[in-house]
Amino acid sequence: MADRRSVSRPKERRRLRRADRLRGIHMISRTSAGVATLALAAALSLSACGDSKGNAENPAPKSVAQAAGNEATQEKMNLYIDAFNALIDDHWGVSKYFGDYQKLDIPNASATANLYFPENISHLERAIAKLKEGRALNGGNQGKKADEAADKLIPQLEALLAQWQALDPYFESRAYRDDGLAKAKAAHAAQTQAYQGSVASIEQLDVALTEYQRASNAAKMEAMRKGGHAAEASLLDAMQKADLFTNAVMEDNKAEADAQLPAMEAAIAKLREEQAKMPADNSNKSYLSSIADNLSGMVGAYRDFKQSNSDSYRESVVDRYNSAIGNMNRVELPA
Question: In the chain, what are the domain boundaries?
Answer without folding.
Answer: 10-328
